[in-house]
Description:
Order of helices and strands: EHEHEHHEHEHHEHHEEHEEEHHEHHHH
Oligomer: single chain
Strand content: 15-25%
Amino acid sequence: MSELRRILIVDDSRMVRASLIRHLKGVYDTREEGNGEQAWQTLVLDHSIEAVISDLQMPVLDGFGLLERLRGCKLKRLQDIPFVLISGDDDQETMERAERMGVSDFITKGISATELKTRLGNLLQFVDTRQSLEDARVHQTQDPDSGLFTRRYIELQSAQALSHALRHHADASLMLIGFDNFARLTEQLGERKAGEICLKFARQVADKVRREDSIGHFSPGRFAIISPGTSPETCLVFAERLRRAVSAAVITSGGKRLDLSMSIGIASVLSDQVTSAGALIDLACERLDLAVSSGGNCVKCNVRETAEPVAPSLGIEQALEFLFAQKSESVRQQLLPLSERLLPFLLLLQQESGVDMRLAEVCQKLAERAASR
């Protein structure tokens, strides 16, 4: 015989509780409490309760107080639990207040057994349907809205890549990419607009990764890339290129330029000696959090100092983008190679204008500065 679903009945009248219990006997398991405070304690401890039938007027904590606690609770099972209010002869204003607070349904104390069981059955069926949809969404491989892989799929791919890496003594890396100050960006633009900006970036990245790599949502403002057979050194070069591209990008909203930057945490099977997908993901998360707490706009990984790649030289167009974005430090670090590339143009400009720009002296000063570092 299957276990009956449990309903909590809350009323300071023993007669009312007894009547409702008789109505539900044989179809539902019941538990009873005499006031809202006792009911709250019971709901926190008893995870088997699936719905609440509560009176409005009760001592210690009334029906409104209990409903408010449930809808404001951090426990999702209590936030969403069906709450049926015994309305009695309450006025329309009282019922409207209960609806605003999130009541699921109303019944009267004289309700028939058939109607009560029908009402509860409909509410619990709705809960079951919603849970089935949520479960299906968690286990699907691609988000229908974005086309990107889901976090669940990334976790499965991480486990598969790690297993292959350990069997063949190969490497596999996970990059966790997050926009700095995403909460502030969401507050500034709204959740929908902030999500659209991040999604647009993720789709651009998806076009640049290998076919064997998988990119997907990880959490709001964060994306993950699992790269089988890829070393952390290779990931670092790719990550730095992404980071610089976002820093230099000119993205506007409402006519104002957005100050966007990103941080990236990288974890790899061999260099980090991890033996589970969970450990690989957790380590990438820790490094991303470290990058953010260090001020953001940086990459954290376990790469030997001798193997740390030299940052690729800036192109002229990218250098101009940095300057227009008022981020001159990245350009200042590569003034010498940039000036050498511009020198033929400047010499022609000097020749055509007839103005001595003292280019030889400028180049010499830059060379001396570079040598002294």
